[in-house]
């Protein structure tokens, strides 16, 4: 009797597929133990996601977070720089605008000059010997908005040995001084005025040395400085806005003498403002 037998239908290709399957399962098991979870992909491929054995966290995740954090910090730093620069620029712009407004709104000051750069000297004989001094000045208001008043005016003549700007007592140290009533100059106008004084051979009135030079010897004194003190008041829009400050003008060099010593050149005066 013939013993039936089973025909082994396994082919070489089937055996090969089984071996590959066993190998894949073994590899997956080892990969799971060493690297972590297994993530299947399409077409039966198996891809592992690397994992840190000690922490159990996927490799690279921390690095991505560090990079992201660094980028955020840099962005904040750049924003801070931009805001700072914008603030500085804004302050500068506001400052420039304020200064420009002050310059535009501030009226220009009074301009003084000595006509001919000359102080005339004329001896006046009589019971009391005297020498008459006259000086002609021009006052110009360059402002188109403000009327200017010059108040409490006193002028002093100094020789070239005395510093007109440094003396604490100009009336005591000067050759002679002049007085002048107050006056006003309208917008963009100029006025001429004369300051006069009679000098006598009295220490309280005039320096005796210079009195002798001008009256007796009739000499000419050159390189003379005239200092003019007063208070400037600017009035904008009929008193709606006024400002006031002390002002001192220095007019140099001048010539003092008789008419033949007249130079003919006007001498501008330099203003020195002060508070008060």
UniProtKB/TrEMBL annotation:
The chain crosses the membrane at residues 83-105. Keywords: Membrane, Transmembrane, Transmembrane helix. The keyword Transmembrane helix applies. The keyword Transmembrane applies. This is Late embryogenesis abundant protein LEA-2 subgroup domain-containing protein. It comes from Panicum virgatum.
């Amino acid at each position: 009797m013939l013993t039936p037998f089973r025909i082994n239908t396994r082919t070489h290709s089937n055996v090969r597929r089984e071996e590959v399957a066993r190998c894949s399962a073994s590899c997956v098991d080892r990969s799971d133990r060493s690297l972590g979870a297994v993530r299947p992909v399409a077409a039966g491929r198996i891809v592992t996601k690397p994992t840190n054995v000690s922490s159990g966290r996927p490799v690279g995740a921390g690095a991505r977070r560090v990079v992201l954090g660094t980028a955020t910090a840099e962005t904040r730093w750049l924003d801070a720089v931009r805001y700072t620069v914008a603030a500085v620029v804004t302050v500068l712009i506001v400052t420039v605008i304020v200064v420009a407004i002050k310059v535009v709104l501030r009226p220009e000051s009074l301009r003084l000059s000595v006509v001919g750069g000359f102080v005339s000297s004329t001896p006046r004989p009589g019971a009391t010997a005297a020498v008459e001094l006259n000086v002609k000045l021009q006052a110009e208001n360059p402002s188109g908005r403000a009327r200017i008043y010059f108040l409490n005016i006193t002028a002093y003549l100094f020789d070239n040995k005395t510093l007109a700007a440094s003396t604490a007592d100009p009336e005591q140290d000067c050759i002679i001084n002049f007085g002048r009533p107050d006056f006003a100059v309208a917008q963009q106008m100029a006025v001429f005025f004369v300051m006069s004084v009679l000098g006598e051979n009295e220490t309280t009135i005039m320096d005796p040395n210079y009195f002798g030079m001008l009256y007796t010897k009739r000499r000419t004194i050159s390189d003379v400085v005239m200092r003019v003190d007063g208070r400037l008041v600017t009035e904008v829009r009929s008193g709606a806005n006024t400002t006031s400050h002390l002002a001192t003008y220095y007019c140099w060099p001048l010539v003092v003498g008789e008419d033949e010593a007249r130079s003919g050149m006007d001498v501008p005066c330099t203003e020195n403002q002060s508070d008060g």
